[in-house]
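Practice problem: predict the structure.
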Amino acid sequence: MKNFSRMSAVFFFTLLVSIILSANGAITLKKCVSGRYPAEVKISSCSKSPCELKINTVATIEVRFKAPYEVRYIETKGVLMDSQYRLYPFSINKKYLKKIDKLFEKGEKYSTIKLPLTEEMEYEFKDSFPVGTIFPLGDFELHWALEDDDIDQDFVCFKTIIKVVN
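Answer:
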């Protein structure tokens, strides 16, 4: 009986935290198969899931994370997947070999980071992209990652639901 009440307490605590986060308008994120979970994610003016992106606007993404190890070469990856498993590019995939102008050390506003990234240093990635008519209207799963281009493996990654609207 003790185990049941302990399990009930854990369940209700988890439920309460979920309700509080939903009430505060947090974006719901899911982990990827590989890659470290980011410390914080901001998408345009989105405060709750699903994030709505309007056609013919420019969306922004900010991802705060700690580098899990020294990363020498970075590739950004972003894709939207619809319910039929069709893929749409979310952001332009780019390779960074020497420096990265969309990545900032914590607290820095306008610095360009030279690679490699330092293990356990906190960084913030900032980018913008057009939400063009290439996107059909509807709900999509966004898969966004920073990949270690040396080993073709994500070192920071998340998934969330995006809704494309007129």
